[in-house]
Amino acid sequence: MSAGKSFYVTTPIFYVNDVPHIGHAYTEVAADVLARWHRQAGDRTWMLTGTDEHGEKILRTATANGATPQEWVDRLVESAWKPLLDTIDISNNDFIRTTDARHEDNVKKFLQHLYDAGFIYTGEYEGSYCVGCEEYKQDSDLVEGTGEFAGEKVCAIHSKPVENLHEKNYFFRMSDFTQPLLDMYEANPNFVQPESARNEVIQFVKQGLNDLSISRSSFDWGIKLPWDDSHVVYVWFDALLNYITAAGYGYDEEKLASLWPATHIVGKDILRFHAVIWPAMLMAAGVEVPHQVYGHGWLLVGGEKMSKSKLTGIAPNDITDTFGSDAFRYYFMSAISFGQDGSFSWEDLSARYQAELANGFGNLASRTLAMVTRYFDGVVPAAGELTPSDKAIADVVAAAAVEADAAIERLAIHDAVTSIWTIVDALNGYITEQEPWALAKDPANAGRLATVLNTATEGLRALAVLLSPFMPQATQKLWSALNVEPSLGALTAQPIREAGKWNQVPIGTTVGALEALFPRIESSAE
Q1: Residue 24 bears catalytic tag
Q2: The pTM is what?
Q3: Is 305 a catalytic residue?
Q4: What is the pLDDT of residues 182-193, one digit of tens each?
Q5: 483, 460 in Cβ contact below 8 A?
Q6: Element (H or E) spanning 7, and its range?
Q7: E-strand spans in 131-191?
Q8: Which of 27, 315, 321, 440 qualifies as a FRET site for 282, CA 20 to 30 Å off?
């Protein structure tokens, strides 16, 4: 993507019947890394996140807790969901709630448009409904229950029995969009990614789509249909619209035109809503479909998907309180191939923190700046004649910047980290090989020592820029210690696609003290 283009990225809006766990935070961090990278590349970037606050599950949870639905969602949003963004250092541009007037009012406009165009009709529906998913389930979505639910059909995701519902509802003519969706998938192979997600969606749609029930009349916690206030809109039909109501649909068409279409980062369990129902809704309304839907894998703990209901949920601050937000962000973006399932363990986190962050990156930065301070009174020296070893470092940095940007473009976040980390490994190997501490013992080697430390300092400058979207706090500490902001500008203003250019640190810059990037942890969490 060339600089200056628009990049609008979204997380799902998270259901607020409970507090967030690291599965939610994983999605937030992935979207945030992409947003930060594109901002530093000079692209017009907008990141949206938020909360989904309507539906029967919210109503039941609120009632069980002795609160009204609005009181319940207000409490959770302010006490849990917004604080999550600070806990893991998210740089979102907007936060939308489905109880916001800007959302509710413009959902009604969208619905009325579809109704007037003949895409919505009345009918009756009977089927198996999972309150946890807020979704009618096909037989293929159900499994045999175990334990207290033995002998019953349960939701494959929530492991709880479904309810049989029979209601008079309003329906969206989704069956009209079977072929248009298939044509769109064929014309735009990258619309659904990764490839496994694309194949799943295509096979599902090829079976033929049924019309979708989009209203409920058995409860009233939701957005009322503008032509029939005895019905509220189906929570998913409501929630999906957040991506355009936040972007200006119905009230700021200029903003919508500047932001839309979006790249949606979602968990694979909600892939069909985003890759099938959502584009069909937009086609019916005459609105451009999203740029891309990317369905990442699940976080597994003990072999099970992260879930509060299964007691595998881990709160993000359980990790950040010990390891910090940068380590949280780095670990989940590097240890798991984005798009695939990944297993979390405290042991793996602790080992990677020590080996890759503390010993790898942190020690590299601290010893390089310490040697500049010790041998050159903190002043970055000019390089002399370059040897093949010095030139190799410059080549590694240049290649890493190009490869990382290409990886971000295809949303392979883990590959971007791997590319950048080649600089860490190369610099550590270079310093070990060149032995600047040995060079410093003989004044005749002063020129060579200057070249080595100039090369290492230049590598740190590139690392600070390239790792900034992943570890904003540690890289800012490094940038401050390099003391290049007076000459080069703020870290977040550095053009990230040009990070591989060499000789950017001004000769004569006086470096400062470096605060420990990844302090030693005496005992890791269990």
Answers
A1: yes
A2: 0.91
A3: yes
A4: 999 999 999 999
A5: no
A6: strand 6-15
A7: 135-137, 142-144, 153-155, 163-172
A8: 27
